């Protein structure tokens, strides 16, 4: 008997329970919370295949076309013979051309054309237009925490029962107009689909994937404590199982030192001198680009539980995360100037659900004179701090802790709204306090 | 609030209509030994229907805030040991802030038979169709979180006591003076306040962070606070205007300095290192600033586009 | 705040007066708006204290409640308010024009055109500030569930006849005001703030007096000084020279003037009740009306400056020509007005306390569509708004330098001309990003193909780029594009990356088909009854 059970066994137990409820349970809905990298996609694919194998017609609801296409590809890989339907919009280029090469995938803009296929997959937006069809026995709703309640309202009539899977810690859905008048209502249309579902059906079985296979042992406790304080999870790997090393030694510069720190500890904070800057702070943007350039130049190599040999950390295994689109554009330009290509550079919204070996993050509050609700949003920081398998380097101006102190949280509180997440202010402080232990000062 | 601590009257005063109404409402809620209050509490938080009639309401009077705080702590311990419903009407709690004790006075604290202590806040803004002004509820939640933290200090030394993180907010229902209540989960606010208390070292920040009704150790005089005010760098923001009559003084100072914050915190967001009105306008006009600085470049483009649109140069572009 | 409006604020600081944020008026103003300036009693939810109301700026109607805690007096106020507001609304309800609406035929499930009535114009209501809009909503909520003696002869404290109806209309106006770009119920501060940037913060802009001081400063006085006077200047009695625009009153007014006057009124009333004979009663009645007159005059004193300010704001806004597409949004307001008229006439019950799941989702979807529509329409109507979108990379203006004819690769090739546009702007264009231009008031779509390599011969100013766009629609059905449907070299054209029209969302289930995820059909649990009136107690404050 050990105090810490084998993570693989813990995860397998959770998965078995979920699949058991899905295939043999009586509840109309099952909710699965999946922290970053806990095997949500694997679970969705497995559940879909088992339902199909049991002869249960299945519809799958995802939130974006990219997610839908990705799922189709994964399903087709696992089951090349399984008849799949990809329901798509009537816009131009409605799906990834890769799907054209898959023989078992039928594509159509009309649900009727896909009738009778074992699995039909589409976005929530497209499903909402499907009318007058026989309801499916089963549905899987993917990224259910990023789906708005009103989107679920529009599609819930299409299925009898559903498995809802998602990550509660990522960015909440939002609305471009005020929705305060419905706050506290169980079916607030601007809330997440899961909160409405559970408010009306509190008896539904709720499961949690307890192990993050993505986040290393250095990151899981921080991310779990800061963003999932009431639903903790752990890393699937132990300290020392993941290693990051460089073929070229440090040249003593800030970027090299922070890379060494991150390789050693999993985290690095490259702190630039305090200054109020525009969003596209040229020094910080260049620092981000330099860290990436040096990471690639120094022949970064990652060793993990996946195999004994170090695997080179190539450009496609690296991502840069920012809060704003213009920051992403500035980093792309800076990388291009340094001759770096193939690195994913995007905002938190677009990095949701993706995984890399190393991430470099421009801190959302770096150089800011004020801390707005947007920049303090818990989900944004959570996404940025939980994309990596090995290490995360954060580039930031000094003084963010003081900035946070000057903007204490004064969030309004709506009666009847369930508190789910830690406060953005508090989570920012927690992450910052941890990062400061891995700080490298640098004046470019 | 700081202004109040300095001995100046509050910014816009309070209408006696609101004052009378607020007091009358609180009295009504607590009437008959808190029967109605406990009924609401049991209804919202559970704990057994027999509660209401049999609550004890101990006398908490004592000399000075220190004495009252000690009396409150004793009453809390006794009630918890007795394991019976107890209503503490205007207890006094102490919380050490940056080395000096601050005294807090919640509207009420209820001790449950199971040893749970629940903070009760009575407010006079209405709950209409079960919803209330979110800004006011937020303020009440932050205020309650401070009480929760202070209570936790006492609970730590009391066998079998636990402080509830769900507080009871009591307000008038709809358009009546009948009380209704809602449970507010203050875990977030508690965590934030707790971190603030460990980080705050400046007395003026503390005064701002604590709820109304806080009294400082008499050793901390108005003069000392006054000196502190002068030493604070101007951190004026328009939000101050609603809370503090010193704000007009600070605003005048900020405007005289040409500080862009006088126009709102969000204004600073896109101005980078530029902090004065004159500086921004000079940069926009191309008189100052490095064109390679993204802020300066964006300002010049903004100024050019704005001028072009106002001059009607492109007014004829077919948009219609 | 966008950089371009920040800049306008800074220019306002510098120049001492507000600077334009728009070159046209983006909200429709009717010929005869009804202005309502309400006041409420501090500390009491929805206990009105007084109001000025009317369509004639020279002749406001003063309504006052001498003792706001008195239920009868409050009902009398609300009844009088109904008499001031409802005739105005009803005067628009009967002037109609024929219109078509598409409805789903219940028999066939197909969409069919139905001939319906559309009110030719709608009643417009203008209040001083956003708090005034909230107050209209609050009054609506407090009145619409009231029962009159006619509704139920046994109801305790029956409401005057037209009060519940006023509650329903005010609720409708309050809800409509939440739709972006709607103009049925407007706040003067919102109207002014949409069109001018002051040299103060948006918080201070909520003060109508201070706002007007910047937009229209008296006799060349700097805006900041005039605004400061509006905020703080007090007379010898300690009363604000520019009282708050309501509905909240200044505490100094409550404590020093109003409270003593109400006390005198209460005393006079008690004395009248205790009168021993007719002569005594006569004298005391005189005292009572004197006390009442005093309260009315006090209220008039703090209401009139705001009344005048609202009309001054309206004057200033009328000086701007109305944006072309504001009319389109007003037509939607007319539809909304007509629909509510029809619901009232059909005898439907008052709006429920809280929306059901389907209604809430429908409203949210409609408002998101309206917001996107408003953003697009304002930019298309107003070069100054477009400038903000251009700065954000969401639109650009460029000159057509070359047009090359091309065709789609299909069995029946359609024209897909390639248009090269020269611009010094930096729109956020990616591969096949769609852009739109307005052609005869309707959008034409093109997609971004790429950047043209520059002509070696031309010396271009730095920063100029050549974009190649492929036009994809609105060129007619034949092989050759319809005349005028393809841009020509030399044309200067504004292109937007945002769509000009908004598609509505998907159809949601009917409320009685609300799915299990959202609690099933509403009323299934509660028995499906109409909303009950608020319980009344003998000691009800309102």
Automatic annotation (TrEMBL), chain A:
Concerning SUPFAM superfamilies, the annotation shows: P-loop containing nucleoside triphosphate hydrolases
One Pfam family for this entry, by name?
A: AAA_12
- Indicate whether ATP-binding appears among the record's keywords: yes
Keyword vocabulary terms for this entry: ATP-binding, Helicase, Hydrolase, Nucleotide-binding
InterPro entries, per database record: Coronavir_polyprotein_1ab (IPR050534), DNA2/NAM7-like_C (IPR041679), P-loop_NTPase (IPR027417)
Question: Which domain of life, per UniProt?
Answer: Bacteria
- Looking at the record, the residues that make up the DNA2/NAM7 helicase-like C-terminal domain are 285-397
Q: Kindly provide the name given to this protein in its UniProt entry.
A: AAA domain-containing protein
Automatic annotation (TrEMBL), chain C:
Q: Where is this region: Disordered?
A: 476-542
Q: Where is the composition biased (Gly residues)?
A: 520-529
**Looking at the record's lineage, which domain of life comes first?**
Bacteria
Q: What is this protein called?
A: Uncharacterized protein
């Amino acid at each position: 008997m050990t105090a810490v059970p084998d993570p693989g066994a813990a995860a397998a137990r959770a998965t078995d329970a979920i699949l058991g409820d899905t295939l043999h349970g009586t509840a109309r809905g099952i909710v699965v919370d999946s922290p970053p990298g806990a095997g949500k996609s694997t679970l969705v694919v497995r559940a879909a295949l088992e339902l199909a194998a049991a002869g249960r017609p299945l519809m799958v609801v995802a939130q974006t076309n990219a997610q839908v296409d990705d799922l189709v590809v994964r399903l087709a890989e696992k089951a090349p013979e399984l008849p799949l339907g990809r329901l798509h919009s009537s816009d131009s280029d409605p799906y990834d051309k890769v799907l054209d090469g898959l023989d078992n995938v039928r594509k159509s803009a009309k649900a009727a054309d896909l009738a009778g296929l074992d699995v039909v997959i589409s976005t929530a937006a497209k499903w909402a237009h499907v009318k007058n069809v026989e309801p499916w026995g089963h549905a899987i709703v993917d990224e259910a925490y990023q789906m708005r309640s009103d989107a679920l309202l529009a599609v819930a009539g299409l299925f009898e029962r559903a498995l809802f899977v998602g990550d509660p810690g990522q960015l909440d859905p939002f609305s471009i107009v005020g929705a305060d008048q419905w706050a506290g209502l169980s079916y607030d249309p601007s809330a997440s689909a899961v909160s409405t579902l559970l408010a009306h059906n509190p008896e539904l079985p709720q499961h949690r994937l307890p192990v993050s296979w993505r986040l290393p042992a250095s990151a899981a406790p921080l991310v779990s404590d800061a963003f999932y304080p009431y639903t903790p999870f752990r890393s699937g790997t132990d300290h020392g199982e993941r290693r990051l090393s460089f073929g070229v030694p440090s040249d003593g510069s800030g970027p090299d030192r922070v890379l060494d720190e991150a390789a050693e500890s999993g985290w690095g904070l490259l702190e630039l001198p305090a200054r109020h800057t525009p969003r596209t702070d040229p020094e910080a943007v260049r620092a981000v680009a330099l860290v990436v350039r040096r990471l690639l130049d120094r022949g970064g190599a990652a060793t993990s539980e996946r195999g004994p040999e170090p695997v080179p950390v190539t450009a496609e295994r690296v991502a840069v995360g920012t809060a704003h689109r213009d920051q992403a554009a500035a980093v792309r330009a800076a990388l291009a100037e340094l001759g770096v290509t193939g690195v994913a550079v995007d905002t938190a919204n677009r990095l949701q659900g993706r995984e890399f070996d190393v991430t470099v993050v421009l801190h959302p509050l770096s150089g800011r004179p004020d801390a707005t609700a947007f920049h303090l949003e818990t989900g944004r920081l959570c996404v940025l701090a939980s994309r990596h398998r090995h290490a995360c380097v954060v580039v930031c101006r000094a003084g963010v802790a003081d900035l946070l102190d000057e903007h204490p949280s004064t969030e309004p509180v709506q009666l009847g709204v369930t508190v789910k997440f830690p406060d953005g202010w508090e989570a920012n402080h927690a992450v910052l306090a941890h990062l400061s232990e891995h700080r490298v000062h640098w004046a470019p | 609030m700081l202004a109040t601590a300095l001995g100046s009257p509050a910014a816009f005063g309070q209408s006696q209509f609101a004052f009378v109404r607020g007091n009358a409402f609180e009295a009504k809620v607590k009437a008959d030994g808190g029967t109605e209050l406990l009924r609401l509490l049991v209804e919202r938080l559970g704990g057994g229907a027999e509660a209401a009639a049999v609550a004890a309401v101990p006398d908490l009077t004592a000399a000075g805030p220190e004495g009252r705080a000690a009396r409150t702590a004793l009453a809390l311990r006794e009630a918890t040991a007795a394991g019976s419903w107890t209503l503490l009407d205007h207890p006094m709690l102490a919380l050490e802030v940056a080395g000096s004790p601050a005294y807090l006075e919640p509207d009420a604290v209820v001790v449950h038979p199971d040893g749970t202590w629940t903070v009760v806040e009575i407010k006079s803004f209405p709950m209409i169709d079960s919803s209330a002004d979110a800004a006011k509820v937020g303020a009440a939640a932050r205020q309650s979180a401070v009480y929760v933290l202070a209570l936790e200090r006492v609970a730590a030394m009391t066998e079998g006591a636990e402080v509830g993180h769900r507080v009871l907010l009591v307000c008038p229902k709809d358009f009546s003076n009948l009380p209704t209540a809602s449970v507010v989960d203050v875990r977030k606010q508690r965590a934030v306040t707790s971190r603030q208390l460990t980080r705050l070292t400046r007395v003026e920040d503390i005064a701002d962070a604590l709820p109304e009704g806080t009294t400082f150790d008499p050793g901390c005089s108005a003069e000392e606070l006054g000196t502190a005010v002068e030493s604070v760098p101007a951190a004026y923001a328009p939000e101050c205007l609603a809370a503090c009559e010193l704000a007009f003084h600070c605003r005048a100072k900020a405007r005289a300095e040409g500080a862009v914050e006088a126009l709102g915190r969000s204004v600073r967001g896109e101005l980078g290192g530029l902090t004065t009105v004159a500086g921004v306008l000079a940069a926009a006009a191309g008189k100052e600033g490095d064109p390679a600085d993204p802020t300066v470049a964006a300002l010049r483009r903004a100024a050019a586009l704005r001028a072009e649109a106002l001059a009607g140069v492109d007014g004829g572009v077919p948009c219609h | 705040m966008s950089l371009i409006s920040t800049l306008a604020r800074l220019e306002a600081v510098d120049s001492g007066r507000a600077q334009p944020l728009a070159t046209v008026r983006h909200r429709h103003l009717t010929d005869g708006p009804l202005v309502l300036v309400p006041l409420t009693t501090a500390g009491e939810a929805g206990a009105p204290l007084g109001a000025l109301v009317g369509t004639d700026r020279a002749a406001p109607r003063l309504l006052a409640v001498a003792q706001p805690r008195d239920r009868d007096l409050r009902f009398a106020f609300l009844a009088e308010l109904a008499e001031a507001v409802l005739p105005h609304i009803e005067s628009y309800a009967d002037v109609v024009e024929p219109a078509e609406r598409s409805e789903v035929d219940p028999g066939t499930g197909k969409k069919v055109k139905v001939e319906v009535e559309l009110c030719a114009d709608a009643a417009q209501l203008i209040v001083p500030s956003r708090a005034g809009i909230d107050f209209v909503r609050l009054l609506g909520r407090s009145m619409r569930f009231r029962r009159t003696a006619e509704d139920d002869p046994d109801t305790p404290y029956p409401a005057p006849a037209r009060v519940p109806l006023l509650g329903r209309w005010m609720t409708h106006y309050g809800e409509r005001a939440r739709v972006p770009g709607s103009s049925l119920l407007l706040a003067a501060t919102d109207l002014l703030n949409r069109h001018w940037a002051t040299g103060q913060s948006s918080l201070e802009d909520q003060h109508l007096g201070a706002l007007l001081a910047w937009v229209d400063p008296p006799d060349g006085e700097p805006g900041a000084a005039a605004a400061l006077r509006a905020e703080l200047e007090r007379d010898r009695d300690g009363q604000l020279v520019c009282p708050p625009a309501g509905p909240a009153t200044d505490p100094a007014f409550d404590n020093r003037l109003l409270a003593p006057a109400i006390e005198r009124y209460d005393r006079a009333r008690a004395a009248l009740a205790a009168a021993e004979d007719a002569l005594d009663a006569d004298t005391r009645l005189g005292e009572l009306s004197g006390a009442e007159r005093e309260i009315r005059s006090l209220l008039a004193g703090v209401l009139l400056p705001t009344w005048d300010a609202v009309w001054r704001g309206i004057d200033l806004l009328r000086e701007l020509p109305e944006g072309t597409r504001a009319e389109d949004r007003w037509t939607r307001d007319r539809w909304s007005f007509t629909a509510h008229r029809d619901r009232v006439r059909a005898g439907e019950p008052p709006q429920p306390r809280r929306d059901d799941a389907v209604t809430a989702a429908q409203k949210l979807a409609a408002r998101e569509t309206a917001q996107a529509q408003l953003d697009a329409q304002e930019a298309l109507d107003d070069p100054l708004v477009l400038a903000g979108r251009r700065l954000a990379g969401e639109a650009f203006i460029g000159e057509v330098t070359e047009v090359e004819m091309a065709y789609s690769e299909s069995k029946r090739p359609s024209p897909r001309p390639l248009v090269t546009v020269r611009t010094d702007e930096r729109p956020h264009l990616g591969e096949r990003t769609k852009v739109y231009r307005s052609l005869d008031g309707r959008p034409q779509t093109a997609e971004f193909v790429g950047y043209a390599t520059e002509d070696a011969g031309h010396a271009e100013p730095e920063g100029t780029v050549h974009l190649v766009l492929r036009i994809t629609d609105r060129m007619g059905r034949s092989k050759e594009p319809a005349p005028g449907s393809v841009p020509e070299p030399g044309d200067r054209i504004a292109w937007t990356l945002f769509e000009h029209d908004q598609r509505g969302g998907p159809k949601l289930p009917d409320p009685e088909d609300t799915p299990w995820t959202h609690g099933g059909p509403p009323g299934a649990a509660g028995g499906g009854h109409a909303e009950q009136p608020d319980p009344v107690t003998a000691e009800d404050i309102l």
